[in-house]
Structure formats: C-alpha cells, structure tokens
Amino acid sequence: MNLLEQAIEGFQAIDLDTQVKLRATxxxxxxxxxxxxxxxxxxxxWLIAGKQWTGLIDRFYQxxxxxxxxxxxAVGIGPNRMNLWTLAASVQGHCEYLxxxxxxVTPLYVVLAYDVRQFEDQRKSYNAELPNPxxxxxxKIFAHHAAAVYAANGIHAHLPAEGGNRYLATPELSLYxxxxxxxxxxxxxxxxxxxxxxxxxxxxxxxxxxxxxxxxIMADLVDQVAVIKELPxxxxxxxxxxxxxxxxxxxxxxxxxxKQSLVKPPKPGEIQVVFTPLHGVGSMxxxxxxxxxxxxxxxxxxxxxxxxxxxxxxxxxxPEVPASMDRAQALAESVHADLVLATxxxxxxxxxxxxxxxxxxxxxxxxxxxxxxxxxxxxxxTELKMMPANPIVIKxxxxxxxxxxxxxxxxxxxxxxxxxxxxxMAEVLWQLExxxxxxxxxxRPEDFVLGCEESHGILVTAQMRDKDAGAAALLLAELAxxxxxxxxxxxxxxxxxxxxFGFFANSLHTVVMPGVEGKENMRRMLDRLRRxxxxxxxxxxxxxxxxxxxxxxxxxxxxxGTDRAARNFxxxxxxxNARIALRPSGTEPKAKMYVETCTAPLAPGTSDxxxxxxxxxxxxxxxxxxxxxxxxxxxxx
Length: 637
Prior knowledge:
single chain; 637 residues; alpha/beta; Alpha-D-Glucose-1,6-Bisphosphate, Chain A, domain 3; 5 domains; six-stranded mixed beta sheet; five-stranded mixed beta sheet; 20 helices; 24 strands; 39% helix
C-alpha cells in the first residue's frame, strides 16, 4: 500500500463529510507528486507514517482561506497552512488584481511591510530530525519571496532598508502607501497571534484593506491562480523593481503622530511612562513618538529586543491580554510610574495599565480605552477651539455604546454600525474624501476625530487608514499628563465619565474551535441559533434578533463570499440595556461573544453607595448573560 492509499484508508476513520475527505485526498496527491512540493515530502511521509489523519486532513482539505484582506494562520506544510507556496499564490492573485484594477497603468508599485515573526515549530508539529522547508521562515523571508513574485510580474516593490533590525509597522505601511502614491501593499504579519502563525494582508491604494465587493474580486483572482511567476531574489533585485526605503518616511510617520498632540510637552521628570513592545516593532514607533515628544520612558528591558518567539512574554504577545504586561506592571509599581503602555508585534494595537490610589496598576480594556480617548480628545478640541466643522467619530458595532453617548454629547456625527475591522473605517474615510458624505454623515476627512474598536485599535488621523498605536500612545500619555497637572488621575477621570454618561460593562468571551472539525461545529452552532434563537437568556427576555446575513435587513444584499463571511453575525438584544453579539473570528479558530450591559447616567440625588450598587448589578448581569449563553446556547455537541 503506497502513502496515498494509506492516507485514504486512515481518512475513513474520521467523522467528517465525504467531500472534505475527497478534497484532502486530491490536495495530498498533488503535494506527494508535483515537483514544486518535493521539499515538503519527508515531513508529509512522517505524518502519514505516524497516522496523524486528523492533522493531515486539516492541512490538506482546503487552501488556506483568503479572507479579511489576505491569508493568516499557522505556518506549516500543506495548502491550509502559511508557507511560501500559499503566500506566492496570494501575491500572484494580487498581481492580477492590480493589473485589472489599474488597466493600462505602468509601472505599478506596492509597499511591503514585515514584522519580527520566525517559525520555530513551538507546537512541535513536525519531525525535527527531517528536512523542513518551513522551519526558520521569517516575516522578512516571506516578504522577500513576495517581492520576487511582484518583480516577476513587472510590479515594483518598496521594502524596508536592508541590514539591521529595521521593520515596518502596520500603521506606517498605510501611511507609506499614500505618501508614495502606490497602488497597493502587503503586510507580512500575524499581529498578536501565537508565535507559530504568520500571514499576508493586502492593502489598496487608499492605504486600507479592500472592502466588498473589491475584496471578493481579489479573492476570486487568487483562487484562479494556476501558475505563479517567480524570480530568484538576486534576479529580482537586479531587475530594478525592488526599492529599499531609507528612514525619511519613518520620520514622517513619527512627525505625523506628534502633530496630533493636544497638550504642552512634559517638563523633565514630570511624568514617567513604562513601555513594552512585547518583542515587536513598537519601540521603533510608539516609543520613538513618546521620546521625541519629551516623555520620560522606562522600557521593559527584557522585552525590547525584536524577537518573533516572544520569549519573555506571558501567555501571548497581545496587549488585549493583561498577563502580557506583567513585567511592565511590576516595573511600573517598583518605580511608581504614571502609566504603562504596550504595543502588539506589528504596533497597531495599544495596551495600557493605570495606577489606583494604592499605586497598584489596573488593566485598561479596549472599550474603556476607546471611551477615555474619545472624551479626552473631544474635550481638548473644544477647550482649544480646534473642533472640526463637522466632527465625526467612528466605531464598530461591537465597541462600547459609551463612545456613542460621549460623541453625541459633543454634537458629533457618529458612525457606529460598522462590521469588525478597520478596513470599514477606512472605507468611511474614503467615502468622505470622494463624496463628502457617508450614508447620512456629512463631512470631509479633516472632520474625522477618532476611530476605535474594542480590540484595542485606535486611529486619530485620517492620513492613515489603519489602526495606529503610535499616535494613540501619545494621546493616552497626554491624558495622564494633563490629569496629573490637575492633581487628578485616569481612574478618577473614568469615574466622572461613567457617572455622566452611564456605566457600561463590556466583555469578550471566546470559544476555541480548532481544525476542520471545529470549523464544522462553528457552522452548526450558528445555523442552529438562526433556526431557533433563544427567547430569553439568564432570565432576561430577548427583545430582538439581528442576523446580519439577512439580505432583507438593514445591511441589504450580500456583495460576495467575503461579505458573507464578515456578516456572519448574530446580535441578541435584551431590552434597552443589554445585548449579546456572536460571530466566528475572521483570523483565528474561535467564536467571539461580545456582551454589553449598561446603566443610565447618574441621576441627580443618587448616593455613591447606590451608584456603586447599580454598577455592580450591571457587571453581574454581564457575567450572568455570558455564562448562561455559553452554557445553554453555544453547544457544539
């Protein structure tokens, strides 16, 4: 019995749809026979010999989906993993897309960015004694491979300068595309995913990611790729189509962030900020912005070195996770700092911790950060008489409703119904730029004040079209500085905001569903909820169900498969003060559940004890809803 026959027999024991097994078989046959995959065969043979049938099906049953602007997932062997072949196929499709979108335009240019990641098989998925083409694959190697594909297709590519530890953060990529008048871009990064992951995310000429239907057009062209044009790296460089950028643009990014300043720079020793890039590139963006603006920054020394293995980070290099900042917290408490700031590996997300009255540091979640920065910026613009003519605040529909209440109190126009992903905010800014309006919102990009999402993404200038930890870090540091000058603190500021606008308890809960079986379970779960939605959750009546896939609903007809994936969203309204939203993640094998409960603003005459009780009731309801919904509704059996 040959290797393929052994695999076919092994697949029969797996409880999956026959079509899934057939697709896995056909892809496995190709990787076992085609010359281009010869280097992968020792590891594939080892997987077969070890009878790792579920793992083999998961690697081969599909080509890694092209969604949310690109491909992201575990680095590894097979079409359902990130490797040079899956990336090159994506880039080839992007080349076809650019030539179609900019028909007759020559030359075409793209900007490439990459972070610190390098695959070292932390999950021990492969045999360390056998040849392995994916071992040691870094984001830089991926980027150079992509640039060679672009060059082979006649497209010019801008990359970071060779030599040293120079990387390019996600917000810088967005800015550089616009400044260089490029036709698109590619970011090699898995953001805050585990170390063994990587990805390629594509950008349009606007500096954002394509939205439906454009992303569907690109995805279709990627799926149609039959032949990948490639050049050896040295030949690509000799072609004259590879361009290495110096630091001039980088300083332009830092200067742009500093222009967002709303407070006089600190005096020496006036404020102390502990900062960590979590081994990513944030020391070259957010920290530089703070230092050039005059802030005293105390770096977390053991986390400063760019390192894709994130060796000194607890749990995950994600500032959405409090444990990732444990070393920063310890340093901040020991030196009596005023603020802790952290960036994720590609420096687009910002994390923070703030001190309480006892000097112990508390985690600031993304919803609280969004509310704090929205109020601070609007208040400062009002105070400085710098408020735009038609101020606009933008947020996703799962980001706290506190942002909407704050923005409307300052007479702002609010876009608060966007799907998850900053590309939808970029689309709003593009519509303002082109048409002077978005739906019923009137204005221009210069009217934009702030965009935010619950997953620690903030944007404070329309000159970039993706979330940016650099300018956000400066804004949060200036909030701490401004309050310290007044003898107050961020914690006290937050309490004042909550009393004025209402207390919001927002929480995110995840159900991890890895592999092909997990994907099928996730589909069944959502199908069941659509067929038979709950009538009450934890004793609270469900007063409305919003299925964003409903083409008769407020979002209208679907614009393709990518739009369908983004709109795979269910929202359960529980009266006026509670809701639950559920969606599968677009980049990770999990379902995400967003729970929000809130109170009304503090009524006159309410005592501190009564206000505290109302807040505790909202918090308890949030937890009860999450627990009950997870227990009785998210059932994948």
